[in-house]
Amino acid sequence: MKFLPSLLAAGVLVDVSLAAPPPSLAPRACTTPKVRKEWSKATTSERSSYINAVKCLTTKPSKLGKSHRLYDDFVWVHATLFPYVHNVAAFLPWHRYFLTLYEKSLQQCGYTGNLMYWDWVADSSAPSKAKVFSPTTGFGGKSNQTGTSTEWGTKCVLDGPFKPPFQLQYWNQDVRPHCLMRIFEPGYPEYNITEMHGDNYSPAVMAQVNAETTFNGFANHLENGPHTAVHSGVGNLDGDMGPQSSSPNDPLFFLHHTQVDRLWYLWQRQNPATRTLDYSGYVWPDYSDATLDDNLQMLGLGVNMTVRAFMDTNAANLCYKY
User: Fold this and answer.
1) What is the span of the domain harbouring residue 205?
2) Are 201 and 124 in contact (CB under 8 A)?
3) pLDDT, tens digit (0-9, with 9 covering 90-100), for 125-158
4) What pTM value is reported for the model?
5) Sign of CA dihedral 37, 98, 82, 23
6) Where does the pLDDT of residue 313 fall: very low under 50, low under 70, confident under 90, or very high at 90 and above?
7) How many domains does one find in the chain?
8) In a domain, 32, yes or no
9) Contact assessment for residue 280 and residue 141, using Cβ atoms and an 8 Å cutoff
10) Which range is the signal sequence, renumbered to this chain (predicted)?
11) Where are the alpha helices (DSSP H) in the chain?
12) Please, which residues bridge with residue 289 across strands?
């Protein structure tokens, strides 16, 4: 087994050589897979329960033994591992595992449902009007972008469940407490650029992504096209969902990445015999060839497991569908 490089994080050497998955967690078929819904298709009660659980995570102590909260564990791990799990083969399986750990944490906060996703392909013609941004049944809308203050961290989301006093701790890997910031990218009709880069995750663009016939081609096209466009469209340069390693600051991150996971699931289901275990690319930073036996680090957020364990959503350790 090849292990991803060890990390020197916060002065602590993380030994990934101890990360072999327990035999009991080896993939095997599940019988009654959970169903992950699109946010707008969920009931009012389901949405409310989900959001209450997210808020609950900000009241729980860190699982990693740090001074921040359980919610911040996810931000810190994502920021610390950022170059190891972006623009490399592990992007899709690592985030699939990351999402399952988040789902389990929500359930420990009393949430009885499953993860949900935002279908930004369906909303690409008018993203800012998507139901997910509703202040009453969604995640709230954008920040105040008309204020006169130029001080960083003052452009707060104006409405919804995550407006102030909801507070975040990290900006990339730096401790910089601030309110949730969402800086929607405006459209520029004169340059044929639509609002929030919606034209970069339209049905036509996704048809091109889905036409890729190899994992490497599909994963690269999805990550560097629609996935990145949504981050930039919602967060711009100064918002939490922008191109920041701390993008899980925005609770919308998890609906966004569940949609990314769904698109991979649908691509796999087009030809499950060949695509379920189709995996290739390279490992950062040595650019060695990636394999299914490579290890996915979680820095204590969960036990480190192999890529192979997260290729099939019908495996017992995942057991879900869309």
Assistant:
1) 49-321
2) yes
3) 999 999 999 999 999 999 986 655 567 778 999 9
4) 0.91
5) negative
6) very high
7) 1
8) no
9) no
10) 1-19
11) 44-57, 70-80, 91-108, 203-210, 215-222, 228-235, 252-270, 272-275
12) 282
Backbone dihedral region for residue 281 (phi beyond 0: left; psi -120 to 50: alpha; all else: beta): left
* Model confidence at 114: pLDDT above 70: yes
* Residues 80-111 pLDDT 10s: 999 999 999 999 999 999 999 999 999 999 99
Per the domain annotation, does 34 fall within a domain? no
For the chain, count helices (H), then strands (E). Answer: 8, 12
Per-residue pLDDT of 187-221, as tens digits, reads: 988 988 899 999 999 999 999 999 999 999 999 99
Q: Which residue has the higher pLDDT, 14 or 84?
A: 84
Token digits of residue 297:
């680090």
In a domain, 27, yes or no: no
- Dig out the tokens for 32 from the structure: 């009654």
Helix residue ranges, H only, 68-192: 70-80, 91-108
Domain of 163: which CATH number?
Answer: 1.10.1280.10
Say how many C-beta atoms besides its own lie within 10 A of residue 192's C-beta: 8
Residue 295 near residue 301 (C-beta atoms within 8 A): no
Closest CA to 166 of 176, 180, 152, 153: 180
2 lies in some domain: no
